[in-house]
Amino acid sequence: MADLPDSSRQGLYVYQSLDKSTRKIRLLQLTRNVTLNDIECKLPDWSLDEAPGYDAISYTWGNPAETHGIIVNGKWLPTSANVWEIVQKLAPQENTGCVYIWIDFICINQKNNDEKNWQVDMMGKIYESAKQVVVFLGDSPNGDADLAIEQVEYLRSQLEEKKENVEDFRAQVDGPEFGNASPKWDAFNTLVNHKFWTRVWIVQEVALARKLRIVYGGKELSWEGFATVMEAFKNIDNDGPLGIPKMVAGRPKEGLPFLGVARILLVAKIRKMVRDAETITLRDMLEHSSKFAATNPRDHIFALEGLVTDKETIDPHLRPDYGKTVADIFKITTRHYLQQENGLWILELAGIGYKRNIGDLPSWVADLSCDRRMASDSETTDPLVSMLALLGITPAIATVRLPTISYPPETISMHGIIATQISRVSTLALMTNSQPGLGSLLSLGAFLQMRSMAMTVFPIQYNATGEDCREAFWRTLVQTTETDEFADMLRLCYAGLDGGLALFQTVTERMLLNPEESVQASIPGVQDDLASLMFLATRFFMAVGVRSGGERFAILNGGYMAMVPPGAKQGDVLVLVRGEKPFLFRKSYMQGKYQLVGKCYVHGLTAAKLANEGKKGESIEIC
Q1: pLDDT at 250
Q2: β-bridge partners, 352
Q3: In angstroms, what CA-CA distances link 27 with 30, 136, 532, 585?
Q4: Mean pLDDT, residues 81-97 taken together
Q5: Where residue 372 falls among pLDDT bands split at 50, 70, 90?
Q6: DSSP secondary structure string, 338-376?
Q7: Would you call the peptide bond into 582 cis, given omega within 30 degrees of 0 as the criterion?
Q8: Which end of the chain is more exposed for a tag (fewer CB within 10 A), N or C?
Q9: SS3 content of the chain, % helix, strand, coil (to 5)
Q10: What is the DSSP code (8-state) at residue 238?
Q11: Is the pLDDT of residue 439 over 50?
């Protein structure tokens, strides 16, 4: 082993070709040479069906620069710093024989695209066949890995004691008194927000593992215990993490604590589906793809195909092929689903109203590489406008047939009912729960602007549903028509937000009128009242962040409230595609064609209402 290149003495290691027909893989064989205090490495190839027991490594590549290296069969093989550290840590510590590991950076010839294509296609089987998968997290950046593991073990023991009262534990976690900052909670937060949990490849690596072993800061953590703790932090209303309102309010610079819990819960859910032999489709995976990151955008598809139970359902043109452009792969994926009867979901991942990482995509093509709730670069909220809104200064508001794929396939024709268009749209967008810093403050600014718009147009009643305007407004923000317990909770939280703002205004006016007067004395219990109301308000904003984070509020002609993509503009046209799903479109510079802006939510609009108004479907050409 060495951490500096010395290829002049050893010569570079040269990869030999693998036999695809016999499903050959390479395994890194590690032996400790006690005499030389070094690790001896070999890289034999094996048929996957006949390979000895090996550990498959799940890790973050980090910086891929080949600044380190190992000696394989007497030859120099360059590696990254991360890979070098993993080999050091996982090699036998004494002369006790050899161990075999599979790690993609070394075991796949990364410079040979043909080999990479079919080896990546096998990766699901490689992880599934390993005797165990080692999740290697490295050391904590804060040096507090020990504290994080202690906290996980403590929480796990608490849950075991309260096995029949997990709901009580969850209620305690989600309550107003939970979440006082401490070194252990900070360490726990660092663990669940580790960059590892953001990688798209870990979904199949963890889900397919027979046995999982987590290595963090040199210590081990069982997956089962870790997953049990994560489940206790699950928000059963939206499948995301509990918000821990007190910690949100107390840690504005860090953003929402435990945000990584949502991804870990998703991975655990998919792992359970695999172990329960449930059917998993590529669609199931693609709907979650953009929640994770990939160095190579193609991996937003390729990294998930190993989980699909029926490989025959995957379009042959979507099998791993790193020679195809990212744009071509995304076009093939979108066309594949749009030509299916229930394929409209893919359009929810498309549109020019959102940030798009891949340039020159037709508007109808899903960019699977980016978070759908990010604004386009040209539509980012101006912080000055946000702060003006907080001060009450509101700037002027700018006023079922399958698609036919054209050839060349850059446009599609879809059937839809043109319903109405945007009359006004907010200049501010709601913040997502992942945005740190002033996120909560800017969301409040956006909320005040949106509420002002709604109350101006609908001062008393929202005619589309007959609801009180306030009821219709909060339902629009969280995009729901449900009348269940969750809706009751949101109604209470919205009332808390309204009450908190009113009380805050009263306190501010008292302080301005008489700066020397004690507000606590003039308004008994004001601090406790504000704390309780702000707790409810924080919960409301977290629900809004899950449902509408990154989106803007709009008023449509005909008297409708809507949540729209961050890049939506006045004049954008609302279309019920196939008479069922609402999408926004914008007239293109190409005559007679439209661009897809994105999906939207319109409170109270139905196809039946449009039919009663005499509106009929027509063919819309989308470029």
Answers
A1: 43
A2: none
A3: 9, 18, 58, 52
A4: 85
A5: low
A6: HTSTT-GGGGGG--TTS--SSTT--TTS--TTS-TTSPP
A7: no
A8: C
A9: 40, 20, 40
A10: T
A11: no
pLDDT (0 to 100) of residue 355: 87
Q: Residue 205 domain-assigned?
A: yes
Same domain, yes or no: 108 and 16: yes
- Cβ distance 255 to 439 under 8 Å? yes
* pTM beyond 0.90: no
Look at residues 278, 311, 330 and tell me which one is the last residue of a structural domain.
278
The set of residues, in sequence order, having a beta carbon less than 8 Å from that of 73 and lying 6+ positions away, is 13, 41, 42, 43
Q: Distance between CA atoms of 237 and 245, rounded to whole angstroms?
A: 16
Name the DSSP class of 402.
P
Range of the domain at 111: 7-130
pLDDT on residue 252: 39
pLDDT reported for residue 345: 92
CA angle 623, 326, 284 (to 5 degrees): 85
DSSP 436: -
Whether residues 73 and 181 fall in one domain: no
pLDDT at 297 over 50: yes
Which residue's entry shows tokens 């081990």?
A: 220
Phi, psi dihedral angles at 584 (to 5 degrees): -100, 140
The pLDDT confidence band at residue 184, using thresholds 50, 70 and 90, is confident
In 546-600, DSSP assigns E strands to 552-556, 560-564, 573-577, 581-587, 593-599
Same domain, 538 and 436: yes
User: Which pLDDT band holds residue 180 (cuts at 50, 70, 90)?
Assistant: low
